[in-house]
């Protein structure tokens, strides 16, 4: 492919915010730019962020905080501003990563101007609402998200299980775009005996690690019960629970697990050192569209216990490079963790296999696939930079 695209990415979260969506979008943007494409980013302003120095490639809008999620926000609807902007400088294709007011206004503006749209299903909001016992909200969210995504040319999802679930619910034109991992950053070579000693562990003792947002939808009650079951089953081992991350459930968890070490949010090399200094990784979440931390833990040489879905379902072969349980079977999840600690050779072998598998899951092939998916919605005669694909705009109708 010898031509370059002008891609506009719309999102309500982006780095330095810490979550899987922001991390993935940063990788996609950087990868496209390295391949010569122009990437325009449209997102909410973060805190007291100053006006951009290069406004042609960055548009900031006002953000509104999301209740219960400090640091995350909805972007203000900006349809008329987007129309004016894109009439002056028209992108070839949009990638809408979030479905809030900003994403909706971008979808409406693009359809009015006849610009091709690809959408990404990054966050499983219907499952989140189910976790909070709001069945009626779940149905409304599913209806809205289906309406939203079916008005894009393609919806990209990160896992096979998510693709099948959306297709079952009536989502159309769903394609897979998986995730990669930086295996140079996340590597067993970052293991730190000094950090382990800081945690109160000696060389032959077990650090049980969890990394992620500490929120109700992450099923963290199972993290507590799993660790307690492991401690009871293997009194000969000295186990220590290490929790990396922050969120609304942190205070509750700290009260329930007074012996655990809570490290807060970690980034970059420090985060990689925390991963590599662990031994066993517990990931009890049932609401992931992917779960980037699973690949990061595998790349760091940890034995991962997770439910058989999303990233774990794609990348873990039970008994070979990790341990899986059927979604929702808590006793099987705990048994899988017990199996990994039955003998030191099992744990060592699984950890070696985990690293070997993850080291082959780089971002380059993901970026190449994303590039092909962007080209696919742009007719070849319109793939020159700054020109627009010829698409007959469908009339915009609000969801019923």
Summarize the structure.
The protein has 400 residues and is α/β, with parallel strands linked by helices. It has helices at 20-34, 79-88, 101-113, 125-131, 135-149, 160-168, 193-198, 220-233, 250-256, 268-276, 292-299, 310-315, 330-340, 344-358, 364-376, and strands at residues 6-10, 38-44, 58-61, 63-66, 69-75, 93-96, 116-120, 154-157, 174-176, 206-211, 239-244, 261-264, 280-283, 303-307, 323-325. The radius of gyration is 22 Å and the shape is elongated.
Walkthrough of the structure:
It is built from 15 helices and 15 strands. The protein has 400 residues and is of the alpha/beta class. The protein has 2 domains: 6-180 and 363-382, Glycogen Phosphorylase B (Rossmann fold, 3-Layer(aba) Sandwich), CATH 3.40.50; 188-358, Glycogen Phosphorylase B (Rossmann fold, 3-Layer(aba) Sandwich), CATH 3.40.50.2000. The strands form 3 sheets. It has a 7-stranded parallel beta sheet with strand order 3-2-1-6-7-8-9, sandwiched between helices. Strands 12-11-10-13-14-15 form a 6-stranded parallel beta sheet, sandwiched between helices. Helix 6 (160-168) links the parallel strand 8 (154-157) and strand 9. The longest helix has 15 residues, at 20-34. It is elongated and about 70 Å long. The two termini are 41 Å apart. Mean pLDDT is 88; it is low at 128-132 and 382-400.
Low-confidence region ranges:
128-132, 382-400
- Tally of helical segments: 15
- Write the CATH architecture name of the largest domain: 3-Layer(aba) Sandwich
Strand content: 15-25%
Mean pLDDT: 88
Using the coordinates shown, work out and report the CATH topology of the largest domain: Rossmann fold
Biggest β-sheet: count, sense, barrel? Answer: 7 strands, parallel
Strand order of the largest sheet: 3-2-1-6-7-8-9
Helix content: 25-40%
Overall tally of structural domains = 2
CATH class (first level) name of the largest domain: Alpha Beta
Query: What oligomeric assembly is this protein in?
Result: single chain
Number of E-type strands: 15
CATH homology superfamily name of the largest domain:
Glycogen Phosphorylase B
The span between the termini is: 41 Å
Shape: elongated
Rg, rounded, reads 22 Å
Structural class determined from secondary elements: alpha/beta
- Run of helices and strands: EHEEEEHEHEHHEHEHEHEHEHEHEHEHHH
């Amino acid at each position: 492919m010898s031509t370059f695209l002008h891609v506009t990415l719309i999102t309500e979260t982006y780095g330095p915010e810490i979550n899987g969506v922001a991390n993935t979008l940063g990788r996609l943007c950087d990868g496209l730019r390295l391949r010569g494409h122009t990437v325009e980013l449209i997102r909410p302003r973060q805190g007291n962020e100053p006006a951009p120095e290069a406004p042609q490639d960055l548009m900031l809008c006002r953000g509104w905080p999301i209740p219960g999620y400090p640091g995350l926000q909805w972007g203000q609807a900006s349809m008329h501003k987007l129309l004016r902007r894109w009439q002056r400088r028209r992108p070839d294709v949009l990638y809408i990563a979030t479905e809030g007011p900003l994403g909706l206004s971008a979808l409406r503006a693009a359809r009015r101007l006849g610009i091709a749209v690809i959408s990404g299903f990054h966050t499983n909001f219907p499952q989140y609402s189910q976790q909070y016992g709001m069945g009626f909200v779940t149905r409304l969210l599913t209806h809205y998200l289906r309406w939203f995504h079916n008005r894009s040319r393609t919806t990209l999802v990160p896992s096979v299980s998510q693709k099948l679930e959306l297709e079952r619910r009536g989502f159309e034109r769903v394609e897979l775009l998986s995730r990669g991992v930086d295996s140079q950053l996340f590597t067993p070579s970052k293991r730190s005996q000094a950090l382990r000693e800081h945690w109160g562990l000696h060389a032959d003792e077990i650090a049980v690690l969890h990394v992620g947002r500490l929120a109700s939808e992450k099923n963290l009650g199972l993290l507590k019960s799993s660790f307690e079951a492991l401690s009871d089953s293997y009194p000969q081992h000295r186990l220590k629970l290490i929790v990396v991350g922050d969120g609304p459930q942190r205070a509750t968890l700290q009260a329930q697990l007074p012996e655990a070490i809570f490290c807060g949010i970690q980034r970059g090399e420090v985060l990689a050192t925390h991963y590599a200094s662990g031994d066993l990784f517990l990931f009890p979440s049932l609401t992931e569209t992917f779960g980037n931390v699973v690949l990061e833990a595998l790349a760091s040489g940890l034995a991962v216990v997770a439910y058989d879905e999303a990233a774990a379902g794609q990348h873990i072969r039970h008994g070979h490079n990790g341990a899986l349980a059927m979604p929702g079977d808590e006793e099987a999840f705990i048994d899988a963790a017990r199996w990994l600690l039955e003998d030191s050779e099992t744990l060592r072998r699984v950890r070696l296999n985990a690293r070997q598998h993850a080291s082959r899951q780089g971002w380059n092939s993901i970026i190449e696939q994303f590039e092909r998916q962007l080209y696919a919605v742009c007719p070849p005669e319109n793939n020159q930079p700054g020109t627009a694909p010829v698409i007959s705009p469908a009339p915009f109708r609000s969801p019923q």
